[in-house]
Structure to design on (305 residues):
């Protein structure tokens, strides 16, 4: 009997240690640095898209029926701000295993295949600052397809640029109508932030949005479930710059910030309001390719799991 109680006590103590270790695994200190986004998919990629690379499947991804329960009641609404721990020597950035598992549970992505020299270019578009045409020209020149996450304001004010993105083979993703923090909204309010934008986009392009970038990088388990049930893949990032304001080092700083932190499977977030990004983009693409990387699309990312 005494031996049995000793065993039971040992199990209880071990469970307690595991519980508190799990609570402290996502540190609140600076080691996981938040990389905020600017604050103020496609079911059929039609148009003159660049030819697919040899061996690359150019068939667009369409969102499958939601695999999660439609009822999000009871799910945690604890708000997370996206953050990563950068590593030196172009190694894979880190996120806590619990966060990585949470994202995977709802088909959300923050990085691609870390065994392959592949990168994904994504741009956030809150408003037009005059640099998107140059960015599109550069992408076309280098035969690279990217993803542009737009807001409601952007679609209403720049419909011709959005059409050009689609015509040139780029993905246009949902960045919500008004750029709110999704965990602060009810399920119905979340729907009103994403669905009208997708519907308006469909009216001018005949295509649907299936990729979503949560505004400010803020999310919760509940918002991941709600948006996945609406048919969206949440797309975060593994490399970003504080680039929505002029960078002290100008285009050289934008270039070095990307090149110094480049890694396998990198989902790169740039803001198209940045002149520095627009001017550095050609060098970034050229030298990234020179290092043996290829640029792929979010469709490739999702198709590869």
């Amino acid at each position: 009997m005494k031996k049995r109680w000793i065993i039971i006590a040992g199990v209880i103590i071990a469970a307690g240690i595991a519980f508190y270790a799990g609570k402290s695994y996502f540190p609140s200190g600076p080691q996981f640095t938040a990389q905020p986004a600017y604050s103020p998919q496609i079911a059929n990629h039609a148009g003159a898209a660049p030819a697919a690379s040899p061996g690359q499947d150019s068939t667009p991804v369409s969102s499958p029926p939601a695999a999660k329960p439609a009822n999000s009641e009871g799910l945690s609404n604890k708000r997370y701000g996206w953050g990563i721990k950068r590593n030196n020597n172009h190694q894979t950035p880190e996120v806590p295993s619990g966060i990585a598992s949470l994202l995977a549970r709802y088909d959300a992505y923050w990085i691609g295949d870390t065994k392959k020299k592949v990168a994904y270019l994504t741009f956030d578009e809150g408003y037009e600052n005059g640099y998107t045409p140059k960015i599109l020209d550069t992408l076309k020149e280098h035969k690279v397809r990217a993803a542009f996450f737009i807001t409601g304001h952007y679609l209403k004010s720049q419909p011709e640029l959005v059409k050009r993105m689609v015509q040139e083979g780029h993905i246009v993703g949902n960045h919500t109508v008004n750029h709110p923090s999704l965990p602060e909204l009810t399920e119905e309010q979340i729907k009103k932030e994403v669905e009208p934008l997708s519907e308006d986009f469909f009216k001018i392009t005949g295509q649907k949005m299936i990729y979503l970038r949560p505004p400010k990088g803020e999310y919760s388990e509940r918002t991941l479930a709600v948006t996945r049930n609406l048919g969206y893949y949440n797309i975060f990032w593994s490399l970003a710059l504080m680039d929505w304001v002029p960078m002290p080092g100008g285009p050289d700083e934008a270039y070095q910030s990307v090149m110094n932190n480049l890694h396998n499977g990198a989902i790169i977030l740039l803001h198209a309001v940045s002149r520095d990004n627009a001017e550095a983009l050609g060098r970034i693409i050229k030298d990234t390719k020179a290092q043996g990387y290829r640029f792929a699309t979010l469709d490739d990312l999702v198709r590869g799991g």
Q: What stands out?
A: The chain has ten helices and twelve strands. Confidence is low (pLDDT under 50) at residues 1-58, 64-69.
